[in-house]
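the two lines:
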Amino acid sequence: MKKNKKLLISYSLVGLFIASCSSVQVTEEAVYEDSIQSIEVSSNRSSLEVPSSSRAVVANATVYFEFDKYNLSTRSIQALKSISDLMSENPLIEITIAGHADERGTREYNLALGQRRAESVADYLVLKGISRSRLTIKSYGEEMPAVSGSNERSWGRNRRAEIN
Amino acid sequence: MKKIFIFFLLPNLIFAELLLEITKGSENPYRVAIIPFQSDVSSVNNIVKVIKDDLLRSGEFYILDESMLLSIPSSIEEIKASEWKLLNIDFIVLGKISDEDNSSVKATYEIYDVSRKTKIRSSTVYGIPGRLRQLSHYVSDGIYESITGMRGVSTTKILYVNEIIDNDNLNYILYVADADGANEQELLRSNEPIISPSWSPDSKKVAYVSFETGMAKVFIQEIASGKREMVIENDHQISSPAWSPDGKFLSLTLFQDGNAEIYILNLATKNLTRLTKHYSIDTESSWSPKGTKILFTSGRSGSPQLYEIDLTKFNTKPSRLTFEGNYNAKGSYLSNNDGIIFVHRSTNQFQIALKYFDENFIRPLTESKLDESPSVSPNGNVIIYAITDNKSGMIAGVTLSGATFVLPATNGKVREPAWSGFLR
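prediction for all of em together
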């Protein structure tokens, strides 16, 4: 496609002429198209996250949420209590909280919703005396479903915050 | 902490091709006869096919089948208006394709108005051999604008994201393609999600959200050079980019306040101005055609609804625009500022809906289950959106006159379509 670029430009100089004689529209134009460059990026995920195996104690949990909600359920609070206990006893543990949403609704709103879910988890832990500096919060919205499928069961498992 | 590798792509990687299917036309189309083009170019049939598909996809045309032609006039002078009135034809298109030399193909076409018994257009387009689809799109846009009085969008482009599995790895590819889905080319390939692609008003750059650093970040990429930059570098998530109509500002959603809030970034000075301040989610901003208002999704009423902020009035409270249903999100203005389109939830369906400002009800435009990401054509006449159907995802389109089409992908899931501005 690149080899055509020069030619395209020379044509574009011809431009677009519109002359109006009585009611007939007369035009002359040349096809013009910019070139397009492709690039590729790749993230090395292991370099982004502390490998959990290098920690003496592992804090892992997943908590689930209702549709379009980010408040913690009683069951979630129980799971988070063991995380906060673990973190209180092991001051070196730092965690990442990643919020997620199900596929329904818009992607950007779901990204924000996932963030709120992760924040809810963080707020609870901070309330329990864990320093916010030990928490990394992020959201994947609906982009990283835990399970596929467009049904209530899958959606319920995808509306979550993962603690690692 | 960030390790980003950038290298130029090798050809022949797996790619998705979109195949156009026209599903339904409008009820009151312009009736057009396209006389077989005179040509010494072997691909003339393909050229005419692309022109016909472009016109049909707009939903505003009925094209007389070639077998129904009563005569084949070789010039405007040979047209007998009475004959065409019999067939109820409104306009006749005559064309000719010729090889100018090795580097140029010439298309000439004329349009005859049957009721006024007169020629209304006479045009010439010079194209490149090997790029004949583009030549065809120029011709169809010329025909479209002479007959409807509106600018055509066949020469415009679309962006979309394709999620594919390539050698067992999940790949996300941002594509740019012609408005009919053909001629797709990769802009960015990543192993982390890409969402929310958005065109600069001059259609030379795109902004998008990439998760390549491990969290959502907004990038701007120049289409011609591949040159790209992260617009704000900090430790927080940033998403939902939208260009102001003058191209000088980018509205964004920043998460640095512990919550999604909308900011406006001055691209020259990098100054940030905070636009929303509320403990609920504020995101999905988009600009009014004149750049004086910003439409956004907010959860401040307890469920996502659309709000508008007037940028010309200092410190005004956002006004709520949607009241029907418990989910109205991802809005954008129609290009003539008559109304907005958005994602609306009705009972258990997410569909694309339209609300005119002078009406107090909304008009659902689509009817599948999980429709999202509506994007309006630059002439304001067509809306493309993403549909999800269990495992597949594809782009569908609907015109304001009610015509529909789909662009199914041959590989993987296609979503997040975004329509460019006029390019011709």
